[in-house]
Amino acid sequence: METTGGCHCGAVRYTAQGEPLQRTNCHCGNCRRVSGAQAVAWITVPVTALTWVRGEPVRYRTDTQAARTFCGVCGTPLTYQNDGRPEQVDITVGSLDNPEAFAPTQGFYVDERLSWVPLVTEVR
Ligand SMILES: [Zn+2]
Ligand SMILES: [Zn+2]
Description:
It is a single chain. The chain is mainly beta. It is 6% helix and 41% strand. It has one helix spanning 29-35; strands at 2-6, 13-17, 22-26, 40-46, 50-54, 58-62, 66-70, 77-82, 88-92, 106-108. The strands form two sheets. Strands 6-7-8-9-4-3-10 form a seven-stranded mixed sheet, covered by helices on one side. Strands 1-2-5 form a three-stranded antiparallel sheet, with no helix packed on it. One zinc ion is lined by residues 26, 28, 30-31, 109.
């Protein structure tokens, strides 16, 4: 299976091969601030499965020992890569071409969740 996606303006495009290792909805304050959204859904894939096919994203180091990437033109958050698991990379579900197919199955950092954001309770 091949998953495709990219940023809003089209400057950065990627493909990801295979089934995601996990699908999460992250409530952490770091994701919240970086994205400007109340929570961020992610799929995790092996780093070798991700290929940039158009453009290159900008890399940003966070204080959570991780690198985030985003489009340098339009700002769409694209990936997250934690130093503790360098063989994996997380991709924002919102940047996928088919986000409907990748519903999260678990919440992450639910202790940091905003009280008005619903939890993913249904495991698919
Ligand atoms: Zn863009
Ligand atoms: Zn997060």
